[in-house]
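To illustrate the input format used throughout this study, we show a single complete record. The first block contains the structure-token representation of the backbone; no residue identities are included at this stage. The design step must infer an amino acid for every position from geometry alone.
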């Protein structure tokens, strides 16, 4: 069998995982109980491995705040000294089947959404979305007020979410995506339809569990809640895809505010890293400028690995308008993704795109060979912490070239 035939066969296996996967949200549990390899002194962060000497402030603050939250340290200053000394370990979340949006991190006691792909058996994990409050660890902010919110979230909100999901028998993510097809979600930065459909399905079980009024209200009022179950769902698919050797399909990507990286099925948890791009579009305040921005930060783009966000920009025309772009650009982004992908989802066709499905399964060979770069959606962060705005970024070609070289070395052809 030739190398090309071996790659084709491996890619077919990965695409079967992507296209037949059935991710189901089954539980909410403390990370240390369910995340493989999680330890008390381990904190997981978004994006590729971090150079501790050059880490951006919001992510450093989130890591240190999480350490205080876990009672590993008394202050954020002490916590960071412990990180530098190696007493507190940090690692990329996607290497542990997890994903952390924006500057969010994951520590041992934090509650996580558990999603299992009922077809391939892969599992993915993500912390639940914290809601509309802008002052959150998710954006690199930490003080006594944020700590109190983290405790309430952990102790008084998420246990009821877990009980409701278990009582329901599980939330079928594909079912929700199918019901909301054609309702304007691109499901990375815009998901009110998915969140509302999930709320209609899960809210009765929350009431049956006698969840506090505030917990129910917070859940129903969060129109971005569905992002995080979808992140965990994408992670469950990618966890299985990473087991397929010799495949050239992208199975992970993310940024840490300075670097951006991708992962490829054939090389598992290896990262191929370049300088991260800026997410440009719309600012939340008119006085913000590009000089205030961090580079791409967060793992929420794992949803794009699974075919959403910028890969299916045509599905979310309202997001395009919100971020200063056009319907024509939405068509262009989606066509670019189709041109470098190996398949498309059929469970959520887009009515105004001739009922085409969403492109999925980006082949790094096509990206480099056709010189076509996918465009990702995302929220932009401030250097001082907090959200700056939202928009899009072209993925760095250097990541794909390095990944292709890494695959060549794996296949022993260089």
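Output of the design step:
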């Amino acid at each position: 069998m030739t190398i090309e035939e071996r790659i084709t066969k491996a890619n077919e296996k990965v695409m079967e995982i992507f296209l037949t996967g059935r991710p189901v949200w089954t539980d909410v549990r403390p990370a240390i109980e369910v995340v493989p390899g999680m330890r008390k002194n381990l904190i997981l962060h978004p994006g590729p491995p971090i150079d501790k000497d050059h880490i951006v402030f919001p992510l450093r603050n989130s890591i240190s705040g999480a350490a205080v939250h876990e009672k590993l340290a008394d202050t954020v200053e002490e916590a960071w000294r412990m990180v530098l000394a190696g007493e507190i370990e940090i690692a990329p979340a996607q290497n542990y089947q997890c994903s952390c949006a924006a500057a969010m991190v994951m520590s041992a006691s934090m509650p996580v959404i558990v999603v299992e792909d009922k077809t391939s058996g892969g599992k993915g994990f993500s912390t639940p979305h914290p809601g509309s409050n802008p002052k959150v660890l998710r954006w690199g902010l930490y003080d006594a007020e944020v700590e109190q919110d983290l405790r309430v979230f952990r102790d008084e909100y998420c246990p009821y979410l877990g009980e409701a999901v278990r009582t329901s028998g599980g939330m079928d993510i594909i079912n929700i995506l199918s019901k909301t097809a054609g309702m304007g979600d691109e499901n990375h930065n815009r998901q009110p339809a998915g969140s509302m459909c999930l709320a209609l399905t899960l809210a009765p079980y929350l009431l049956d569990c006698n969840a506090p009024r505030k917990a129910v209200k917070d859940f129903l009022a969060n129109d971005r809640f569905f992002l995080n179950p979808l992140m965990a769902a994408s992670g469950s698919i990618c966890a299985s895809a990473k087991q397929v050797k010799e495949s050239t399909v992208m199975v992970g990507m993310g940024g840490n505010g300075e670097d951006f990286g991708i992962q490829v099925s054939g090389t598992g948890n290896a990262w191929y890293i370049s300088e991260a791009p800026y997410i440009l579009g719309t600012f939340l305040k008119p006085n913000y400028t590009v000089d205030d921005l961090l580079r791409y930060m967060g793992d929420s783009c794992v949803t794009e690995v699974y075919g959403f966000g910028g890969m299916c920009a045509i599905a979310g025309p309202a997001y395009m308008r919100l971020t200063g772009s056009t319907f024509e650009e939405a068509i262009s982004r989606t066509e670019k993704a189709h041109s470098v992908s190996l398949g498309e989802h059929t469970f959520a066709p887009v009515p105004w795109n001739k009922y085409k499905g969403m492109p999925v399964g980006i082949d790094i060979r096509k990206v480099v060979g056709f010189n076509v770069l996918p465009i990702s959606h995302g929220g932009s962060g401030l250097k001082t912490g907090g959200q700056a705005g939202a928009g899009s970024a072209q993925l760095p070609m250097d990541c794909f070239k390095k990944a292709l070289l890494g695959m060549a070395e794996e296949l022993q052809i260089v």
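Structural context for interpreting the output: The mean pLDDT is 97. Residues 144-168 form the longest helix (25 residues).
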